[in-house]
Amino acid sequence: SRDYSAPVNFISAGLKKSAAEDMSEDDSDEDEKPVKQEEIPKEFVPKKLKTGGNFKPSQKGFVGGTKSFVDFGSWERHTKGIGQKLLQKMGYVPGRGLGKNAQGIINPIEAKQRKGKGAVGAYGSERTSQSLQDFPVVDSEEEAEEEFQKELSQWRKDPNGGKKKPKYNYKTVEELKAKGRINKQLSAPQKELSQVKVIDMTGREQKVYYSYSQISHKHNIPDDSPQQPLGKDSKPQGFALPELEHNLQLLIDITEQEIIQNDRQLQYERDMVVNLTHEIQKMSEVLSHEKTAISNLSKVLEMVEECERRMQPGCENPLTLDECAKIFETLQDKYYEEYRMSDRVDLAVAIVYPLMKDYFKNWDPLKDCTYGTEIIAKWKNLLENDQLLSHGGQDLSTDAFHRLMWEIWMPYVRNIVAQWQPRNCGSMVDFLDSWVNVVPVWILDNILDQLIFPKLQKEVESWNPLTDTVPIHSWIHPWLPLMQARLEPLYSPIRNKLANALQKWHPSDSSAKLILQPWKDVFTPGSWEAFMVKNIVPKLGMCLNELIINPHQQHMDAFYWVIDWEGMISVSSLVGLLEKHFFPKWLQVLCSWLSNSPNYEEITKWYLGWKSMFSDQVLAHPSIKDKFNEALDIMNRAVSSSVGGYMQPGARENIAYLTHTERRKDFQYEAMQERREAENMAQRGIGMAASSVPMNFKDLIQTKAEEHNIVFMPVIGKRHEGKQLYTFGRIVIYIDRGVVFVQGEKTWVPTSLQSLIDMAK
After folding, report:
1. Could you give the CA distance from residue 540 to residue 559 in angstroms, rounded to a whole number?
2. Which residue from 73, 82, 55, 96 is spatially nearest to 11, judged by alpha carbons?
3. How far is CA 283 from its chain centroid?
């Protein structure tokens, strides 16, 4: 049996102990002999790792380390643990570190004292050199093999027996240039950092630097600890020369900066060469353009001097206006830029104005209205400022043509208008019509507003329609195309004078219509209708009152005087006159005639004769239509009521046929008008679309029924004289040749479409 109460022997972790502890441990273990290297089993001998370097335990810690290898996991014999077996199955080799590449450390981390009082990492890596050498961190097996071969080559001897040459790192000029270009882009922030004041308090004494770059170049001060004397087995240490290294590094930096600066200067010079080459090309082009401009200006100056020489009084070949226009055309065609840049106003004033005055000195605009239009139109193209024309301006200081017309041409027009009589308007209108496309718009407006209109206004004030033999429209209306709305102020006094002249007028005098008819389209519709209602319609009403209707001996003069004004007064005014002054007397005469056993054939002729006196437009009016339908109804009643008395043979049939025929005509005319109106609306895009325009009278009735929400449908199996019967609301109708017939008490009565709609509602 085993004694489990005995203490457990833990594995030594290989802690670094002080010298005193080592001495005491050696004294306490004097009987313990060190283990020789030959006695270590082969499987525990450290092998070379692929990661580079060998595990080399120090002489001092070899026994402890070996003991660790031999006794690793020995405490498991007191337990039932199988950890050692599991580790070995997974590939663990005693004496190596854990991990795939055995990169785990065996010895614990050793503490290392820093030289000064700086922060962590200020004096280099905090890891021990032994751990870095034995177990370097690598990224892959290829890098590990390369690192191992590099370290292995350091321990090999040169077969030639000489010393190994040191390796140097070189920088090419191209690398320095590339570095300089990168640094040039980052020069601005570095320049700001180079001016920062830095206080270094990491050493024993406080130091002040004026850039961060000075910190990187500060010297490493050697430790102040006393040097140990060289022993027998010790190697001499290398001497640190920070000043020399600093100076050499400074020389290298200066040389690099000079190379970079020279490269930048060379690139700058090359860019300057390219820029100067482009500048030379541009300047050569400018120089060539200036030479051409100078040559052209010289030629222009020669032409202008030639014009001035020929304008002198004693010149043998004086300059004419046509020749001067040709010279200006040459300037405009061949030297367009110079011509546009020149001061055309001063040039025209000096050369053209004297020639223009001489050209128009004997001109009479009313006798020869087209004189000079061609030459002035040519000068308009040469002198008019297009920019000023586009803005609609009238600046005389910048447009030579406008100034020419205002100062040379306009005085002749003022003189001739001052002597002109407004009633002789033909010559003046022709003159302005021939110059309307040549003269500037603002000058033409000035002529019409300031010269022509005051003369016309003064003449209208002195006009008397009763005594003047010349109608006023003969010398006012020719100005309408030119003046248009400018004549509006003249219309009111003209209407007043015409109204005064019509106070004693009688409709038998046809001269009033001849005077008023030209003004119908000139006055506005409202003012014309008001003038007719006030001055003409009352006179026509008095004339109709004087009309005597006598079937046996009828005088139609008064009726003709009234009907003759149909185109002058509105239809509503004429219908009002007939309803008030004509139809009451006419119906009264018809009733008296029917009550005395008349001849119905004569009555029919008399009815048709009076109806033919009216135009279709008047007959289509509902009021006139109702009056004639009333006359037909009176005749029908008269024929129907005479049952016991004598009846002319065929009278009843004749009156019925007359009624049927007349109403059919009315309905056909109404249908035609409605169809024409619908077609016009469809063409203008108002109301129905073109596809929905009624093609026949039935379609028109269907459309009207839909508009008024009335049911229109055929009656199944019902016909009258072979015509299909329809229901229009509650009314039964049929259609025959564009006429609607409504079922009455005894017979079918023709009716209008509007009356049918009214009955259906």
Report:
1. 9
2. 73
3. 41
Q: Residue 109 burial by CB count (10 A; 0-12/13-18/19+): exposed, middle or buried?
A: exposed
**719 and 636 assigned to the same domain:** no
Express each pLDDT in 258-304 by its tens digit: 888 898 899 999 999 999 999 999 999 999 999 988 888 888 888 87
Residue listed under structure tokens 């239009």: 373
Structural domain boundaries, residue 592: 505-640
> From the CA atom positions of the chain, what is the Rg in Å?
65
Claim to verify: residue 611 and residue 541 sit in the same structural domain:
yes
End-of-domain residue from the set 621, 640, 659: 640
And the tokens for 106? Answer: 């065996």
C-alpha 368: how far from chain center: 53
Q: Which of 89-98, 365-374, 394-403 has the highest mean pLDDT?
A: 365-374
Alpha-carbon distance values, 321 to 197, 374, 381 (Å): 87, 12, 15
Residue 115 lies in a domain: no
Among candidates 432, 423, 504, 431, which has minimal Cα distance to 460?
423
**Number of alpha helices (DSSP H) and beta strands (DSSP E) in the chain:** 34, 7
Q: Which of 616, 640, 664 is the last residue of a domain?
A: 640
Which residues lie closer than 8 Å to 315 by C-beta, 6 or more apart?
309
In this prediction, residue 175 has a pLDDT band, given cuts at 50, 70 and 90, of: confident
Helix runs in 536-582, H state only: 537-545, 557-563, 571-581
End-to-end CA distance of the chain: 132
- Separation of alpha carbons 61 and 13, rounded Å: 11
Distance, CA of 345 to CA of 334 (rounded, Å): 20
- Compute the distance between CA of residue 470 and CA of residue 422 in angstroms, rounded to an integer: 12
Answer whether residue 99 is part of any domain.
no
Residue found under tokens 């049918």: 756
Q: Is the separation of the CB atoms in 193 and 212 below 8 Å?
A: yes
Query: Which residue intervals of 360-468 are DSSP H helices?
Result: 373-383, 386-391, 400-404, 410-418, 425-435, 441-446, 453-461
Whether residue 708 is found in the same domain as residue 585: no
Instruction: Count the domains in the chain.
Output: 2
> Does 628 reside within a domain?
yes
Q: Is residue 548 part of a domain?
A: yes
Contact status, residue 422 vs residue 456, Cβ threshold 8 Å: yes
**In this predicted model, what pLDDT tens digit does every residue of 507-546 receive, in sequence order?**
988 888 889 999 998 999 888 999 999 999 999 999 998 8
Which of the listed ranges 387-391, 396-400, 490-494, 705-709 does the model predict with the highest average pLDDT? 490-494
Same domain? 628 vs 543? yes
